[in-house]
Every structure is written in C-alpha cells, then in structure tokens.
Amino acid sequence: MTPEEGAKAKVVRKQMGPNNRALLLLRLLAFCATASATIVMALNKETKTLVVATIGTTPIKATLTAKFQHNPAFVYFVIANAMGSLHNLLMLAVSLFGSKLDFRGLRLATMAILDMMTVTLVSGGVGAAVFMAELGKNGNSHARWNKICDKFGKFCDQGGGALIASFVAVALLMIINMMSIIALRKQKPTIDSVAP
Question: How far is it, in rounded angstroms, from Cα 6 to Cα 43?
Fold first, then answer.
C-alpha cells in the first residue's frame, strides 16, 4: 500500500466514525417519521351520513366527508413534512456520497443551515396542524364553532397519529441540527478551505 492509499483509507475511516454513523441513523429515523406523517395525513379521509334535520318524523340525512384538503393548515402540514422527508433523503445521500462534492469545506456548513431550515419548516407545519386539531376536538364556543371529532373519530385519530409522528420528527431533527453544528465546529480548516 502506498502512502497516498493509506491516507485515503484513514480519511474514509474518519468520515464513517461513530458520530457519523449515529447521524446517519438519526437522519434515517427522521426520514421515516416525516414520511409516515406525510403519508398518514395525506390518506386521512372519512365519510359519514349524518342526520342534519328532522321535519316531522322524517330525518333529513347528508353525507359529509372529512379530509385533509379541506383545511389549509393540514395541507401545509403535509407539504412541510414531505419537504422534510426530501431534505433527509438528500442529506443521507450527501452524507454517504458527498465527500467528493465538498467545495472548500462548505459541505458541513451548508448541511447545518439546511437542517436548521428544515426544523423550522416542519415545526411550523406541526404547530399549525395542532392548532386546527385542537379546534376540531374541542371546538370554540365563543366563535360558535362546533367540534367534529365526536362525529369523525377515525379522521381525528388518524390525524393525531400523523401529529405524533411529526413531533418525533421535530425532536430528531433538532438533535440532528445540534450534531451538525457540533461537527461543523470540530471541523479543522483544510488547505482548500483557507485558500482564496
């Protein structure tokens, strides 16, 4: 083995250290959480036939459908989690194959900035969806908005599962963000990153 090959082998071993493996595992878990939140909420739909009025002894029935597209907060939730899934998938690819794409040592800085933006995006989506979910569960007596979860239980339960998955994703993304910043701080300047 030539000295150059030995140096390349050390670089590869250093890149796949225990911290990098943990980061890859966390990114994979965050991808699974955001993807499951996206899929569960996007497939959330329930149709029921309800009695809306009674004329004499004849009930008047209406078929109503509850689906995520009826609420802009849930649409934003699905889009935000889908973008979080795409981000995690791309960052997994960059972590595994991106050492060749490192331009002047900016790969870690770019990843840390994008991680921060993804945490913000996903947490905003889950915050908006939680507000609307609470409104659907309890209603608002002051505005005379009735609760719907007593009528569309499956819709609310499935949406609650998506919210839990998204909260897990936000927690994982915050840990990933902290680890990215720590890795950036530990990065030693190389000849390429110092050169003009």
Answer: 52
Neighbours of 32 (CB within 10 A): 16
Of 184, 166, 171, 172, nearest to 22 by C-alpha is 172
Interatomic CA distance for residues 37 and 73, integer angstroms: 14
Q: What's the CA gap between 175 and 53, in Å, rounded? A: 52
Is it the case that residue 102 has pLDDT exceeding 80?
no
Residue-wise pLDDT for 29-82, tens only, equals 999 999 999 999 999 988 888 888 888 888 888 898 888 898 999 999 999 999
Q: Is 137 helix (H, G, I), strand (E, B) or coil?
A: helix
* Contact between 37 and 165 (Cβ < 8 Å): yes
Whether the Cβ atoms of residue 98 and residue 91 lie closer than 8 Å to each other: no
Q: Write b or e for each residue in 96-119: b if 16 or more Cβ atoms lie within 10 A of its Cβ, otherwise e.
A: eebeeeeeebebbebbbebbeebb
Distance, C-alpha 50 to centroid of its chain: 35
Amino acid at 53: A
Q: With contact defined as beta carbons under 8 Å apart, do 19 and 186 qualify? A: no
Is residue 11 packed enough to be buried (19+ CB in 10 Å), middle (13-18) or exposed (0-12)? exposed
- Dihedral angle at the C-alpha atoms of 174, 175, 177, 179, nearest 10 degrees? 170
Contact 50, 64 (CB under 8 A): yes
